[in-house]
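Researcher: Structure prediction, please.
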Amino acid sequence: MLGRKRDISIFNKTIDDYKDQLKKDPVVQNHLKSLYDNLLEKNLVRIIEPYSRVQIAHVAETINLPYDIVEKKLSQIILDKKFSGILDQGSGVLIVYDGSESDQTY
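Model: Predicted structure follows.
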């Protein structure tokens, strides 16, 4: 079910439900971290795709995760060049660029 829905809240609930069994095995724990990062990234990209500007608080509320986690992951996605945009931390906004648009800072 998780694989079809790609819902991070279902993933977190499942991990909590079976944490004793899952957290004991370091190999499983490593794979779970990788899966979590992948799910979070894909969910965030899916949420922000239709916007040119979006409040980070709105994204955090939509995905039901704390603001700081969402902001950190969005920053990582941008730095890894998996998504084109900038975070305006002063106003709490993500400004999304078209794929062809480049950063005019340089």
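Model: DSSP finds six helices and three strands in the chain.
Researcher: Thanks, that helps.
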